[in-house]
Amino acid sequence: MEYWFNNKNSNKGVKVSKKMSIAKLVKDKTKYDLNDYCDMRGLKVKSLYNGYISKKAAKILKKDGIKVA
Question: Rounded distance, CA 50 to CA 12, Å?
Fold first, then answer.
């Protein structure tokens, strides 16, 4: 019996990192949810939810220890 796939080159033991949402990153690093955090820092919540991170937002997030791409 032949199998259509080859299991010899499987990636066993390799951890695949999942991308975390910006809300989860903020919640883990600070005790605030994303809405409260953005209100305190003067950021726009909607742009962060849509995936747009401005230079100003990236600078503030980096200063608080939140790593963004």
Answer: 34
CA distance 30 to 36: 11
**Residue 16 one-letter amino acid:** V
User: Crossing angle for the helix pair 34-41 and 22-29, nearest 10 degrees?
Assistant: 80
Q: How far apart are CA 48 and CA 51, in angstroms?
A: 5
Banded model confidence at residue 3, pLDDT cuts 50, 70, 90: very low
| Prediction pTM value | 0.68
Place of tokens 């019996």: 1
First to last CA, the chain: 47
